[in-house]
Amino acid sequence: MNEQVLPTYADVVAASERIAGVAHRTPVMTSRTADSELGAQVFFKCENLQRMGAFKFRGAYNALAKFDEAQRRAGVVAFSSGNHAQGIALSAQLAGIPATIIMPHDAPPSKIAATRGYGADVVLYDRYTQDREQIGRDLAQQRGMTLIPPYDHADVIAGQGTAAKELFEEVGQLDALFVCLGGGGLLSGSALSTRALSPATKLYGVEPEAGNDGQQSFRSGSIVHIDTPKTIADGAQTQHLGNLTFPIICRDVDDILTVSDAQLRAEMRFFAARMKLVVEPTGCLGLAAARAMKAQLQGQRVGIIISGGNVDVARYAELLAG
Ligand SMILES: *Cc1c(COP(=O)(O)O)cnc(C)c1O
């Protein structure tokens, strides 16, 4: 049925060679407090400490590193209000490729400025009246630019899978792994690494309960579309899984779990107070789900991917205080 070729673990290995020395090999952190609160041995893969503040740099750089000469000259286009935009902008700058990023006109000025700061050309659109995918496709066609989507792309998935690969290489096999879920690039890439390096691991995707399209899709067997969910987890406000991410998730993931915004705020406080880590709301999905499941995790070795740390400082203070 699926005409597209799904990426494999061999693609993750190739991606890890392409990003070596450019992306950070982020630290794996532990916390005695987390261990005793969960009754498990917990390993946190800290992608909040990745370049530009999230794992998105891995997939973006891997995709751009595969451009041929004509693609490099014409440049890359991406649409995103968040971390994918910054991942593409920074990767393009490092690779010497011109980048155009399509962002909503009401995106946080700090994010627009950060994207321009990496040298990208920012095109603003009205998210209520214009279709960003159409704008992206038009630009790609008119100028011969290559569109790199935020998750549904084999090179993006393979790049995202390098974080879990590094985790298993560092700590060995795990009983369970919790991964944040938006469109599924990180989860499907992590699934490739998990099934290759620690096949018996229970692999869980975690999304905000307000936007549980992934859970609905996983359980019904076909991709469910929803309206943009209202949640503080802005990195997981996707409306549907992808044509590549969905089949990998169905094949390799054990279950999709959901958590509330209140649980995410509690984990932001935990990371700040106990681990001295700034974690954005979406990056807290994994720990929130693991804590809710702790009865099943007693005595186990548990991995959690902290996906990112990009949150406006004033907003961060508000979320911690609230
Ligand atoms: C993009 C993003 C996610 C979700 O990743 P997908 O590959 O879309 O599932 C999770 N956390 C952060 C911080 C992100 O930027």
Automatic annotation (TrEMBL):
Its EC number is 4.3.1.17, 4.3.1.19. Gene3D superfamilies: 3.40.50.1100. Its cofactor is pyridoxal 5'-phosphate. CDD domains: Thr-dehyd. Residues 24-308 form the Tryptophan synthase beta chain-like PALP domain. GO terms for molecular function: ATP binding; D-serine ammonia-lyase activity; L-serine ammonia-lyase activity; magnesium ion binding; pyridoxal phosphate binding; serine racemase activity; threonine deaminase activity; threonine racemase activity. InterPro entries: TrpB-like_PALP, TrpB-like_PALP_sf. Coiled coil: none annotated. Pfam families: PALP (PF00291). It comes from the Bacteria. Keywords: Lyase, Pyridoxal phosphate. Belongs to the serine/threonine dehydratase family. This is L-threonine dehydratase catabolic TdcB. It comes from Duganella phyllosphaerae. The gene is tdcB.
